[in-house]
């Protein structure tokens, strides 16, 4: 670890690859020889256009997607997509169908429901969102406009380990917290989106990767900036895009490629997750995982300690050892270690060792 | 000028103060001793909270506004505000009233019109938006929800030099291209917004400064992220904000303060504008300004040359001398020198001298 930097286990914004940060820092005053910072250059400049095109191509290559998919760069986060999706695709005749697997899945549903065009396919809310609804639990409405999933649930620490069969209904997914973390057959999804501030870059840009057929025409009645069509037809340049944020996403995508792509990310992420879940499972109940084993997330490891008092001590002592951001979300309590692509095994191993030592001292 | 950097006359994204860029570069890996980059730190962290609060306070102080105003950080640019304004404030009974003074003013109107709740107060479209409509030209509808202005018209190079009397109708303004460029009695406005990528920071955050009475309650029917109320009640932290972009806006605001505030910015901007308009006015018609004199912008100086051939030569020769981004918008043609706060007099003087030399060679 670089001097003065901590291991950052925050859920998002989250740690970014240090080589990417250093590269951006080095070229901060002069982007690609333009004589301008990436913060200053026109989004109509050829240097900008080349960068954005490369970012898009790298993302599609990593996802193994072809010409029938397009990459858009939008803003407003997943929370804004929660409204855009029903506005663009659902109707009273063809509602949006939602699988509730956590807080964000629920928020997505609520926006559709608020518009009177949402319905629930399945929910694991009872019991505190400890598992991902299984295929058997899904009551697919074949008349729905789409089935919407939240593929990884940051707060609860659960993640899909299968791709639901939706009986031909278009499959939409919020992948904000596990996008590009492992190989998935992305071609089974019709519409994927992600706030980038977990695995992909700094907060401020929303990545959309979707079948072109869902992007090329939007309801005429919508305002210009609410239509996917606007972003699709203008290559995300109808108005000024968040250029720096896109540039960073491009750098992170290039870094993932250079490190070995999604297969390598998956290998590393599994190794990191196994290390932490291993400590939890060997702790004789000192650490209690929130997620059921078969739904455990590779990205967010959630667990409780025997008391809230000990949890406070844990957070403080961890930070003193340079392990930051381990406090869990208030709706689950306890701890959460977010171990996205950019978190090193070194950092995870240090946290795991700290957990082992902490148990010895406090059990 | 720093080695390898050009004078950047782009209309936005645009040049930023070099000391601000250098400061951000120096602390890029470690924000306020947190051990994390500003790109990585949680938006719930105390270091982030302090930064955002300082940015808000500095902006309000520069604008001379009190407790009845609030600062919001949103996304989607002015183009998204064009839809949010009528959705939040206008109705068939109380339409949004628009003064058309250029392309963006027109786009703002079109979103309201598309929703069936917009009307036109005045327009200077005839003649190619060469002037700002005067008080006498405004047909105020006293039943309107608001009167909307675009205070500086980037494309046409025109700017308001008076604050319209709206007969008590709330006054709204898009100040994307002249926000914090000079002292204005901002308290006469009820709602001000700005895409920051011209005078205030990198693209990716939209600054809203408005009377609290317009923010504290929004129509219940709107999606969460379309309501100003959501941003107001959660201090712009309902979802993850574009943290880095806000941080840069804060740095630029602090820089403006440290340089002497809006009075000093106005003095510098006037000196820069005078230098360029002086060359145009002394050119015996070689350079022809687009804007009528009384509507000239201090931010964007637009002018034509005798032929399109010469205009092409001008752009190329300027760039060869390190003067970039002087090509005008296609709808006006010719040249546009954008000389926002961060453009130095040195850069403007170099452009002015180049213009004088160019005329001598090519007249």
Automatic annotation (TrEMBL), chains A, B:
Residues where pyridoxal 5'-phosphate binds: 78-79, 104, 154, 174, 197, 239-240
Keywords in alphabetical order: Amino-acid biosynthesis, Aminotransferase, Cytoplasm, Pyridoxal phosphate, Serine biosynthesis, Transferase
InterPro entries tied to this protein: Aminotrans_V_dom, Pser_aminoTfrase, PyrdxlP-dep_Trfase, PyrdxlP-dep_Trfase_major, PyrdxlP-dep_Trfase_small
Keyword Amino-acid biosynthesis: yes
Main location: cytoplasm
UniProt enzyme class: transferase
N6-(pyridoxal phosphate)lysine modifications at: 198
Location(s) in or outside the cell: Cytoplasm
Pathway: Amino-acid biosynthesis; L-serine biosynthesis; L-serine from 3-phospho-D-glycerate: step 2/3
EC number: 2.6.1.52
Family stated for the protein in its record: Belongs to the class-V pyridoxal-phosphate-dependent aminotransferase family. SerC subfamily.
Protein's name in the database: Phosphoserine aminotransferase
Taxonomic source organism: Selenomonas bovis
């Amino acid at each position: 670890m670089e001097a003065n930097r901590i291991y950052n286990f925050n859920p998002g914004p989250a740690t970014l690859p240090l080589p990417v940060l250093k590269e951006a820092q080095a070229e901060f005053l002069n982007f690609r020889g333009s004589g301008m910072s990436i913060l200053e250059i026109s989004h109509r400049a050829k240097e900008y256009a080349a960068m954005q095109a490369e970012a898009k191509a790298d993302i599609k290559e990593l996802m193994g997607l072809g010409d029938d998919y397009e990459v858009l760069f939008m803003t407003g986060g997943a929370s804004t997509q929660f409204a855009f999706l029903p506005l663009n695709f659902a109707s009273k005749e063809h509602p949006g169908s939602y699988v509730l697997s956590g807080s964000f899945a629920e928020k997505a549903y609520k926006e559709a429901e608020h518009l009177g065009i949402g319905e629930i396919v399945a929910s694991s809310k009872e019991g505190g969102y400890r598992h991902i609804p299984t295929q058997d639990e899904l009551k697919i409405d074949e008349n729905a406009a789409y089935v919407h999933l939240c593929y990884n649930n940051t707060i609860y620490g659960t993640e899909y380990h299968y791709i639901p069969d939706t009986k031909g209904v278009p499959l939409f997914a919020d992948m904000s917290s596990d996008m590009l973390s492992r190989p998935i057959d992305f071609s089974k999804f019709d519409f994927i989106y992600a706030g980038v501030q977990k695995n992909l870059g700094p907060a401020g840009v929303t990545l959309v990767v979707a079948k072109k057929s869902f992007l090329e025409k939007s309801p005429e009645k919508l305002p210009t900036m609410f239509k996917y069509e606007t972003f699709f037809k203008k290559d995300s340049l109808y108005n000024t895009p968040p250029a720096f944020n896109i540039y960073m996403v491009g750098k992170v995508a290039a870094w993932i490629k250079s490190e070995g792509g999604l297969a390598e990310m998956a290998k590393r992420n599994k190794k990191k997750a196994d290390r932490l879940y291993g400590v939890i499972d060997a702790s004789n109940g000192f650490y209690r995982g929130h997620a059921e084993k078969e739904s455990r997330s590779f990205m967010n490891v959630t667990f409780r300690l025997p008391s809230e008092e000990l949890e406070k001590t844990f957070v403080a002592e961890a930070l003193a050892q340079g392990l930051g951001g381990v406090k869990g979300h208030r709706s689950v309590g306890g701890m959460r270690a977010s171990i996205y692509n950019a978190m090193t095994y070194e950092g995870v191993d240090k946290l795991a060792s700290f957990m082992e030592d902490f148990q010895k001292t406090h059990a």
